[in-house]
TrEMBL record:
The lineage of its organism: Eukaryota, Fungi, Dikarya, Basidiomycota, Agaricomycotina. This is Carboxylic ester hydrolase. Residues 1-17 form the signal peptide. Residues 26-518 form the Carboxylesterase type B domain. It comes from the Eukaryota. GO terms for molecular function: carboxylic ester hydrolase activity. PANTHER family: ACETYLCHOLINESTERASE, CARBOXYLIC ESTER HYDROLASE. Keywords: Hydrolase, Signal. Belongs to the type-B carboxylesterase/lipase family. InterPro entries: AB_hydrolase_fold, AChE-related_enzymes, CarbesteraseB, Carboxylesterase_B_AS, Carboxylesterase_B_CS. Its EC number is 3.1.1.-.
Length: 544
């Protein structure tokens, strides 16, 4: 919803004159000049071999440079297959990367790089939605120019296959492997564009943030980036299970592919799926979505020894098995509202939804006992529910909606951001936390959703729909904090818009910055402390 707000800005600003060129291997890339902003764009550059036919459901094969002598890099490439876009805007041949840089920089400029991974529940999203031109322009204006990079990764059952067959064939977490391949491409090639491969900051939101956080666990992230910014997503924001848990979703997908329906329960559907065409695959996408009982059926999964997620993050944290990279991590005030059904109206219904979300994790008896405690910690009192700080107002819904939204937001987002910040701080890893509380326009975000998941994105990208002085100010300040961190590993470089000091999160100073144009200030990271402490006390129950 909010992501689409960035499209008109992107389209309006891509007005070019003389096209810039760059030599990548044997290929001449012809990009697009954005004269009004003094920038150059190079898009639709393949970073991996097309994941087609026999390469479908396989890890990406890095493509250091294109095969052709010339490449039209003036526009974005097509999005990866998903159910929410017209077919003409998508292709299975979608593993492309885009580079946006200040115009006129020297080949040896060695500018820091901000590498964006989009969100969308692991089954939707595209690089074309996100225009980094304001971020780049502000970085230049403040004297710390950066290069902005984003990319496409595989989605849905093509990016996150589920089930035993996918496990047997090494086909798990392919979208995460696409992200790693794109980062490897940056290491190989960003110097050609004037970037510094030793100064890459990976940032993303929602699924993109979860993916980035997961790479801290058991990947070569430390050799591919030096820092990260995590917007509304930690390692276990999406509850982590083994791939067999979502076997029914995989079977529904296969059953929806007309030529492969007979193989749905056979445990040997891959051979048939390799031969299916795009129309058939999209039919399978839609069939699985229509029948799933999971909020997000296509998600990262525990992939065992040697995998990217060898165990629950909480287990790996205890072992000290995570990259020691500095990071910013934050959440929005009302993360849970968008993921809570507005029709929920009873304690029994919340209980049933929570059981479905977390099963199977522990014994049914222990799970029921834990959920009972959780419900006691989140009473049916609208003054305590989400959207927070709205008193008794229930926005025409049952009070149980605010209760359920508070639980959803804390189980998936607040508790996990806090758990990760504590873990890193105790290991002496520099990190900074935030809570985004900027009020949203009712025409953009319905009041029942509050300061919802995703609502910070236009502010980071310098494109808030709210043009009030408060909104414009917090947008400029957030962009400055982000760029400052990417260029100096601290949000407090003293350049750009005057802004409060953002103190580091430490065991002695557990505080986050409140990002609100009317009141930017450090606040204790203790809101709903008893509730998140309980959630984090037994992470196995919550699949954290």
């Amino acid at each position: 919803m909010l992501q689409l707000l960035l499209l008109p800005i992107l389209l309006a600003r891509f007005v070019s004159a003389a096209a810039p060129t760059i030599q990548l291997g044997k290929t001449t890339l012809t990009g697009r000049a954005i004269d009004s902003l003094g920038q150059e764009f190079f898009g639709a550059i393949p970073y991996a071999e097309p994941p087609l036919a026999g390469q479908r459901f396989k890890p990406p094969v890095l493509k250091p440079s294109p095969d052709s002598k010339t490449l039209d890099a003036s526009n974005f490439g097509p999005a990866c297959l998903q159910t929410d876009l017209p077919v003409a805007q998508m292709s299975e041949d979608c593993l492309t990367i885009n580079v946006l840089r200040p115009a006129g920089i020297a080949a040896n400029a060695k500018l820091p790089v901000m590498f964006w991974t989009y969100g969308g529940g692991f089954d939707e999203g595209a690089s074309v939605i996100y225009n980094g031109s304001v971020i780049v322009a502000q970085s230049v204006a403040r004297g710390t120019p950066i290069i902005y990079v984003n990319f496409n990764y595989r989605l849905g059952p093509l990016g996150f296959p589920q089930g035993q067959e996918a496990d047997n064939r090494g086909a798990l977490n392919l979208g995460l492997k696409d992200q790693l391949a794109a980062l490897e491409w940056v290491q190989l090639n960003i110097g050609t564009f004037g970037g510094d491969r030793s100064k890459v900051t990976v940032f993303g939101e929602s699924a993109g943030s979860i993916m980035t956080a997961i790479l801290f666990l058991n990947s070569p992230l430390a050799s591919l980036a030096r820092a990260a910014i995590l917007e509304s997503g930690s390692q276990a924001t999406s509850a982590l299970f083994t791939p067999e848990r979502n076997e029914p979703d995989w079977e529904n997908f296969v059953a929806g592919v007309p030529s492969c329906a007979s193989t749905a329960s056979s445990g040997s559907s891959f051979a048939c799926l390799h031969a299916a065409n795009t129309t058939e695959l999209l039919a399978g996408f839609s069939a699985a979505l229509a029948q799933t009982t999971n909020e997000f059926p296509w998600v990262p999964v525990i992939d065992g020894h040697g995998g990217l997620i060898p165990d629950l993050p909480s287990v790996l944290f205890k072992r000290g098995q995570f990259a020691r990279l500095p990071f910013i991590a934050g959440t929005n005030l009302d993360e849970g509202t968008l993921f809570t059904t507005t029709s929920v109206n009873s304690t029994d219904e919340i209980n049933a939804l929570t059981v479905a979300l977390l099963s199977p994790s522990v014994s049914p008896t222990k799970l029921e006992s834990s959920i009972l405690t959780l419900l006691q910690l989140y009473p049916d009192d609208p003054t305590l529910g989400s959207p927070f700080n709205t008193g008794n107002n229930t926005f025409g819904l049952s009070s149980q909606f605010k209760r359920a939204a508070a639980i959803e937001g804390d189980v998936a987002f607040t508790s996990q951001r806090r758990f990760w910040a504590d873990t890193a701080a105790n290991a002496h890893v520099s990190n900074f936390g935030y809570l985004f509380t900027q009020p949203q326009l009712p025409a953009v975000v319905p009041p029942a959703f509050g300061v919802s998941h995703g609502s910070e994105i236009p502010y980071v990208y310098g494109a808030p729909t709210d043009t009030s002085p408060s909104a414009i100010l917090i947008s400029r300040i957030m962009t400055d904090y982000w760029v400052s961190f990417a260029t100096s590993l601290t949000p407090n470089d003293g350049l750009g818009v005057p802004r409060p000091e953002w103190t580091q999160y430490t065991p002695q100073n557990k505080a986050v910055i409140q990002l609100n144009g009317a009141n930017i200030t450090m606040i204790p990271d203790d809101f709903r402390g008893a509730q998140t402490a309980f959630i984090n006390s037994d992470p196995v129950i919550f699949r954290h």
